[in-house]
Amino acid sequence: MPSRSLYPHQWSWDSAFIAIGLRHISPLRAQTELDTLLAAQWADGRIPHIVFNPSVPLDAYFPSPDFWRSSTAGRAAGAPRTVQTSGIVQPPVHALAAWLVHLADPGLSRARGFLTRMYPRLAAWHRYLLHRRDLGGGGLVSVVHPWEQGMDNSPCWDRPLSRVTPAPARSFRRADLDHGSPEGRPTDLDYGRYVRLASDYRDRGYADGAGEFAVEDPAFNALLIASEYALARIADELGAAGSARQARAERLTAALVERLWEPAAGMFLCRDVRAGELIPERGVSGLIPLLLPTLPHDLAATLVRTMRGPHFGLGGTTRLVPSYDLLGEAFDPHRYWRGPAWINTNWLLEGGLRLHGERGRADALRKGILHTADASGFAEYVDPYTAQACGATGFGWTAALTLDLLHDRPAGRGNGVTAIKGGDRG
């Protein structure tokens, strides 16, 4: 669970990050985290973004299992019958997590057949994304709901969401406001649009391609590429050739640059597939491709300058990278993904900095993450200026990724991101 009160079920990308941290204190428990999540995988390959705990009351979280109706509405897509899930997905961090968990105790992993179990499931997951979600036809994956990208109410979604007619407020009850301040959560209008998108997707039997919302996101695709590199390492470990997956990761990196790089912004932008245009909002998502090992050096250097410039302020006005442009009209330092800093995105950027030879800046960001996690009570997210805690405290991935950064590593090695290429670059 990310949080016992606010998020009392199992979340997909949270579990991946949690396993990355748990591997340092219990590789077996980290393996179990991923085994449990993938046991709920659908037959079409998708890994659902929520696996519901049947002992939790329905009104503890919305949307609850009776909203998603996975075992009935998702039957044609191969939803499991013995466990209730959502029908959408989240960023594909799982292969990276599986490879790092293996490296924590290779003997235990081999004895338990961990990667042998993981590999076909992860390969099916990537196949689903690459074959069913290339809605723009350019080789990249599209998300069909803001919850899939993980940065739920980012201003990057405002333009494509504006085309969605919200569900009536009386048609649902938000449980999140029972545990979090309204000033720090998505608005009711946002939620109305989220509910409309999700219910329409459900009513289509979770078939992809027909919805109003389809966005190519740089972070989602960068994490898929990083996990393709990890799958290549897993394939090599299992005696299969990983070279084809590595080549695919390199092709996807080229597609990412071709479709989402915006030189004038100095970063990657989201593409609204339905409108056929880039979305002119600067979110932290557009910096995450820094974690890719074959990103051209000039683009990596530009991302570092943008990260440290006035739009994100790292090392100047902010200690951690905020989730959204400090100068953007929609910036809000306390409202979820519209400005606060998050530990998971900063963990990814710390690894990207280190991967591209920016060790001093990576060390400074690592120090900032550790200080902020401790001082905030391991908060879900924080004010990027003051580091004031926002959202839930004792948050799962904040604690887990703190464990990862605290773990003693050989000099020069990154936070795990570098493991996809076997070491530092530069």
From TrEMBL:
Coiled coil: none annotated. InterPro entries: 6-hairpin_glycosidase_sf, 6hp_glycosidase-like_sf, Glycoside_hydrolase_63, MGH1-like_GH. One of its GO terms (biological process) is protein N-linked glycosylation. Gene3D superfamilies: 1.50.10.10. Residues 7-398 form the Mannosylglycerate hydrolase MGH1-like glycoside hydrolase domain. One of its GO terms (molecular function) is Glc3Man9GlcNAc2 oligosaccharide glucosidase activity. Keywords: Glycosidase, Hydrolase. Belongs to the glycosyl hydrolase 63 family. This is Mannosylglycerate hydrolase MGH1-like glycoside hydrolase domain-containing protein.
